[in-house]
Structures are given as C-alpha cells and as structure tokens.
C-alpha cells in the first residue's frame, strides 16, 4: 500500500466566486503521490458518419456508448482496485477525511451495512465534481494512482451529466439533484473545473442527441 509523500495537496476551500476576484488561498493537507495528467479518452466505439437521409430499410447502427462491452473485462478489475484502495487506505488518511467532512459526505467507515465494505464510488465522484474538487491530485488521493483506468470513464460521464443537469434547471434543482438525503446535502456548487473545449463540444453534441430524443427523432428519423 502506498504511503503519503511529503508534498501537499492544495484544496480550494472557497465556496463562491466573483468576477475579477483573485483566487483565494488554498488549504494544504498531506497527499498521496500525484496521478498522471488529466486523461484524454478516445472513443473506441465511435461510428463512422452516417448519411443525413435514411430510407428506413437500411440497418441503423447502435449509438456510441462510453465503454464498449469488450473493454469491460479489462476495466472492471481496475475499478475494483480503486474501490479497494479507497476502502482499505484512502478513507483513513487525513486528506480524504478532511475533504469528505468539508464536502459533507460520509465515508464508508462512517456507515453500516454493505456501504461500509462495498461502497459505490460514483457518489463520491459526483460530490467532487459539483464542488470543483475533482482535480487529478484529489482523485489520486481518493482512488489511487490508477484512477484514470479505474474511474476515469465514470468521471468523464459525471462531468457531462453535471453540465446537463445545470442546463436542464436552475441552481436549486441542480443542487437538489446532487443532495444525498437525509443529511448529506451538497454544501455548495461550483462551475465545472478546468473544462476543456473538446469536452464542452462533446457535451453539446450529446445534448443535441437528447433534444432529438425528446422529439422522437431516433432510429430512421434521426437527423444524423
């Protein structure tokens, strides 16, 4: 099991931002070794461009997914390794304990039943994303140095979901969507951290697909 390094993990503890306001000082706490840089996830399931008009007689391909079925066998062991790192090591470190307390989310050791030994990592990923604490360093502290291979695809999914949630409703409905009842409400919301142009463009494309879904523009009616 890795041991914390002498470096410090800087966490932005400011809950609000204002235009032109300088960046607030960060709180330094011990951290585990840093992770690789933010991943670039190619889409191995991407289909070739389809003609705009369809006759309805040709075979319509399945839409692209975030993870191909033939990759699940290699992904799942890495996800389990991230879960084991979080349960056996990370949740007992000052870094993770202090940040979890600040973000108002209970760790597995503070819960009973299956959540104590087999927690879902998605709840913690969602809380880190909506509070803009999902930096590679923090994700490494929570889920280990191989977080990219184990939970990187989930982080990518949930960042897009956060964009969709914010676009679908106002602040109150967005916050409610990320509250964990009865007493683990999200303490604050922050804009998506370090959003890249490519990431926003991909979200826009998926949002357009969803709007088409709302209008039943699917299958042979799809404009793509």
Protein described:
- The chain has helices at 69-88, 94-102, 114-117, 122-130, 136-143, 147-168, 171-178, 197-214; strands at 8-11, 27-30.
- Helix content is 44%, strand content 4%.
- With 224 residues, it is mainly alpha-helical.
- Strands 1-2 form a two-stranded antiparallel sheet.
- Helix 1 crosses helix 6, helix 4 (122-130) crosses helix 6 (147-168) and helix 6 (147-168) packs antiparallel against helix 7.
- The protein is globular and about 50 Å long.
- Among the domains are: 69-193, no CATH class; 194-224, no CATH class.
- It comes from Aspergillus niger.
Strands ordered across the widest β-sheet:
1-2
Largest sheet geometry: 2 strands, antiparallel
Integer average pLDDT = 80
Helices and strands, in N-to-C order?
EEHHHHHHHH
Euclidean distance between termini CA atoms: 49 Å
| Spatial extent as radius of gyration | 20 Å
Q: Helix share of residues? A: 40-55%
Structural class: mainly alpha
Low-confidence stretches: 3-7, 22-64
The count of DSSP E runs of length 2 or more, i.e. the number of strands, is 2
Count of alpha/pi helices: 8
Overall geometry: globular
Strand content: under 5%
InterPro entries: Verrucosidin_biosynth-assoc
Protein name: Similar to An02g12850
Organism: Aspergillus niger
Region (Disordered): 1-41
């Amino acid at each position: 099991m890795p041991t914390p390094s002498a470096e410090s993990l800087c966490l932005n503890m400011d809950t609000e931002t204002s235009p032109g306001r300088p960046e607030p000082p960060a709180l330094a706490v011990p951290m585990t070794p840093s992770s690789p840089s933010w991943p670039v996830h190619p889409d191995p399931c991407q289909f070739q461009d389809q003609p705009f008009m369809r006759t309805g007689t040709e075979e319509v391909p399945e839409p692209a997914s975030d993870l191909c079925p033939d990759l699940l066998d290699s992904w799942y062991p890495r996800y389990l390794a991230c879960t084991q790192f979080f349960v056996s090591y990370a949740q007992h470190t000052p870094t993770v304990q202090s940040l979890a307390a600040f973000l108002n989310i209970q760790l597995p050791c503070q819960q009973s039943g299956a959540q104590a030994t087999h927690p879902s990592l998605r709840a913690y990923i969602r809380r880190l994303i909506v509070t803009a604490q999902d930096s590679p360093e923090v994700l490494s502290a929570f889920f280990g140095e191989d977080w990219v291979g184990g939970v990187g695809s989930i982080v990518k999914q949930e960042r897009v979901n956060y964009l969709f949630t914010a676009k679908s409703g106002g602040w109150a409905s967005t916050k409610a969507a990320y509250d964990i009842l009865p007493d683990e409400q999200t303490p604050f919301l922050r804009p998506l951290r370090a959003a890249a142009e490519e990431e926003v463009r991909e979200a826009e494309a998926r949002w357009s697909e969803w709007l088409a879904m709302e209008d039943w523009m699917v299958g042979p009616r799809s404009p793509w």
